[in-house]
Structures are given as C-alpha cells and as structure tokens.
UniProtKB/TrEMBL annotation:
The chain crosses the membrane at residues 33-50, 99-120, 132-152, 164-187, 208-225, 231-250. This is Uncharacterized protein. Keywords: Membrane, Transmembrane, Transmembrane helix. It comes from the Archaea.
Length: 257
C-alpha cells in the first residue's frame, strides 16, 4: 500500500500544474535566472528590426486575427522566444558572399543567443557550471531541430492535408514529447546520443505531463507573440519558464521509468 501511495504522489508531483508552478516559483525566488533570456530577447528584437530593413526576402509573422482567428502552437522544441520575422534559407541560395554571410549571421545570431541563454539558465537551476562543450552540444541540437521544422514547414502538401494530416501531426508531437528533456540532459553533461536515449526513458510515464507543458508553452507563446513587443515578451518571460520546467521534470523523473 505504501508503494502505491508513493507512486500516486510521484504522478501528482509531475503534473502539468506542478511542473509549471515549480518552475515559476524557482524563477520568483531567483530572479537572476530571468536575465539571460532578457538579453536574448533584445537580440531577437534587434534581429527582427534588421530583417525588416534587409534586402534579403523575409517572412513576417501573420497577425492571428487579420484574416479570421488563427491559433498556432508556438513551440520550437527548445527554450526560445517567438520572433516576428524569419529568413527563409532558400532565399540565401545564389547570393554574393557578403550577402550570404549577412543572411547567415541574421539566421544564426538569434539561435546562438537563445542557446547560450538556455544553457546558462538551466545550468544555474541545476547548480552546475556552464561549459563551452555543453553550449556546442545544445547548439547542434537546436540547429537540427530548427532545420527539421523549416523543412516540414516548406512542404506545401503537408500544409494542405487537413484532417488527413492528423496522424503525421500526432507523430510529430509524440517525437517532440520524447525529446523534451534533451536540452537539460545536454546541460547536465550527457553526450548527444545518451541525452536522446535518456530523454526517451525519462519522459516515459510522463508523456501527458510533457504534452501539457508543451501545449501551455505553445499557446502562451502564440498569445504573447501576438501582442506588441511579443518577441521580447516571449523570450524574456516564457523561455525561462520552459527552461526551468525541463530542469523540474528531470528532478521528478527517473531513468528507470
């Protein structure tokens, strides 16, 4: 009976409300954890401003209520803000070297900013030192995740599948749930391969909790990004919650799940 009660307590502790409230409480008790992503938010906002003035073609985030209400799940797979602009990588093809270098800088600089902010935030939440190798590992994960999302988003057939696309969407969400803990495990010193495998194990039995966290973060990101100053707001306020939520989940999960 004692074991059953403990199992129930563990399940309650890893609920969506507990993970998010614990993350917010830790940020409230240690406001310095907000600083890295506040700086990153400024970098993302500057990148938005530069892209709007850039001769390289730029995608602008649509206003959700401009052509009828459109609700999106703004979840990138790693702690970050929601930028208002993006540079399509296909627009960099065939550019002169100086324009190519500039375009790649505008693409990579925001990623570097959020990666560094995420590593510092999670490392401090874990009481760990920040290591350069860790930053490199997380950056590699973020680049791969970003390129995969861009690739899926560029396939017109996927965008027009309607209900037929639900199985693919569920598969994508299932993979995203299993990879939720990867950034935190990389910060904890795991190798990329071990982080991937361990993330799958640690999220086993916590799948609905992780899905709920993703849903809350994604919908909150959509709502905040739709307001003036959304890039800074999502990066400075929401990304730290996401980062610390990963740490909280790792603390309440077990490799033996």
């Amino acid at each position: 009976m004692a074991r059953n009660r403990n199992d129930g307590a563990n399940r309650r502790e890893s609920s969506v409300a507990h993970v998010l409230s614990a993350a917010v409480d830790r940020l409230r008790r240690n406001p310095s954890l907000l600083v890295p992503f506040a700086i990153a938010g400024f970098v993302l906002a500057v990148a938005d401003a530069l892209r709007r003035r850039d001769p390289i073609p730029t995608l602008e985030r649509e206003i959700p209520w401009e052509n009828g209400l459109s609700i999106d799940l703004e979840y990138a797979g790693y702690p970050t803000g929601v930028a208002q602009t993006a540079t399509p990588l296909e627009s960099l093809v065939g550019l002169h070297p100086e324009y190519l270098a500039w375009g790649l800088t505008l693409y990579l600089l925001p990623l570097v900013a959020v990666v560094f902010a995420g590593v510092v935030t999670m490392a401090r939440a874990m009481d760990r030192d920040v290591r350069l190798a860790t930053v490199g590992s997380v950056f590699g994960f973020v680049i791969v995740f970003d390129l995969v999302q861009r690739g899926l988003g560029s396939i017109d057939a996927l965008q027009g599948m309607g209900l037929w696309g639900l199985p693919l969407l569920m598969l994508y969400l299932a993979v995203t749930v299993r990879l939720f803990a990867v950034p935190g495990l990389l910060v904890a010193g795991r190798s990329p391969k071990r982080a991937l495998l361990e993330s799958v194990r640690r999220t086993r039995g916590h799948g609905w909790t992780v899905f709920g966290v993703i849903l809350v973060v994604g919908l909150a990101g959509w709502a905040l990004a739709s307001l003036p100053g959304g890039t800074v707001a999502t990066t400075a306020l929401l990304a730290p919650v996401h980062a610390v939520a990963i740490v909280v989940l790792l603390e309440h999960s077990s490799v033996d799940n």
